[in-house]
Specification:
Shape: globular
Radius of gyration: 18 Å
Distance between the termini: 30 Å
Number of strands: 9
Number of domains: 2
Largest sheet: 3 strands, antiparallel
Order of helices and strands: HEEEEEHEEHEE
Oligomer: single chain
Strand order of the largest sheet: 4-9-8
Structural class: alpha+beta
Length: about 140
């Protein structure tokens, strides 16, 4: 386990909380009280489609796009788990893109990952993250 400074811990715990993962605090040393404690919390997963992505988010390129938006938030990238993206955007109908944990880790590492969405209204889309990145030979 790595040691984090208080500010670093607060930032990473906040991102993990927003991603809906458990945050476990053990052996909190320094800064009064000392001792050992354990605390766990989970939060709900935030929407994955945003009007404006932060610089640490990953925005997917969508084939035959007509208003859809695919964004993996920096919190989701930090958490590294599987993600189910709703890509409705302004299209007026939704598609879902399910990405396994390995795909999220590859996207975070700037590797090219492409995944087909669910079918809605008789069509699908292919969402590609890091289109200029190295291809991963694994199919997700």
């Amino acid at each position: 386990m790595r040691e984090l400074k208080r500010r670093q811990f607060t930032q990473e715990a906040s991102l993990a909380f927003l991603a809906g993962v458990a945050v476990v605090i053990t052996d909190c040393g320094g800064g009064g009280g000392g001792g050992s404690s354990s605390y766990s919390t989970t939060g709900s997963t935030p929407p994955t489609t945003q009007a404006a992505a932060s610089t640490d988010d990953k925005v997917g390129s969508i084939s035959a796009n007509h208003g859809h938006t695919a964004v993996i938030t920096s919190a989701q990238l930090l958490a590294g788990g599987a993600v189910s993206l709703n890509i409705e955007g302004s299209a007026g109908h939704n598609h879902v893109v399910d990405l396994v944990a390995q795909a999220i880790q590859d996207i975070k590492a700037n590797m090219k990952v492409a995944k087909e969405s669910t079918s809605t209204q008789g069509h699908t889309h292919v969402v590609t993250f890091n289109p200029d990145g190295a291809d991963d030979p694994t199919k997700y």
